[in-house]
Design brief:
- This protein is mainly beta and 118 residues long.
- It has strands at 11-12, 19-27, 36-48, 58-64, 67-71, 74-78, 83-86, 92-96, 102-109.
- It has no helices and nine strands.
- Strand 5 (67-71) and strand 6 (74-78) form a beta hairpin.
- InterPro entries: Cupin_2 (IPR013096), RmlC-like_jellyroll (IPR014710), RmlC_Cupin_sf (IPR011051).
- Residues 41-108 form the Cupin type-2 domain.
- It comes from Dethiosulfatibacter aminovorans DSM 17477.
């Protein structure tokens, strides 16, 4: 499979506790990657994900903008090329910390791929 992010459908993420976020699915089981999903999120000014935890890990890589990761009681500043591994059951939240779009890639197990309409 070879494609471009510009060919991916934009999904508004409207889960409770989320504000000003859109996402795109890059690679998923539909493309042959069994068990995992790679997504891109764009968080607009004053946007954030809900503060939550879940029983699976995920990996995040910052593509652009500035953000903050709240992880298990601590705030971590993020910028382009920052990355993180978020262990299962750790409370976390990603927030835009600037005026530009905060953009990051996120890889989760398939069961963690929620909040996208079909």
């Amino acid at each position: 499979m070879v494609s471009s992010e510009k060919n991916c459908k934009i999904h508004e993420i409207s889960a409770p506790g989320y504000e000003n976020i859109v996402g795109k699915v890059l690679v998923s089981p539909a493309d042959g990657w069994e068990g995992y999903v790679m997504r891109i999120f764009e968080v607009g000014e004053n946007g954030f994900s809900g503060r939550h935890s879940h029983d699976y890990p995920h990996i995040v890589y910052v593509i652009g903008g500035k953000g903050t990761l709240f992880l298990d009681g601590t705030d971590y500043p993020l910028e382009k090329e920052s990355f993180m591994f978020i262990s299962p059951n750790k409370e976390h939240q990603l927030l835009n910390a600037g005026q530009d779009t905060f953009k990051f890639m996120c890889v989760v197990p398939e069961r963690g791929h929620v909040g996208f309409e079909d």
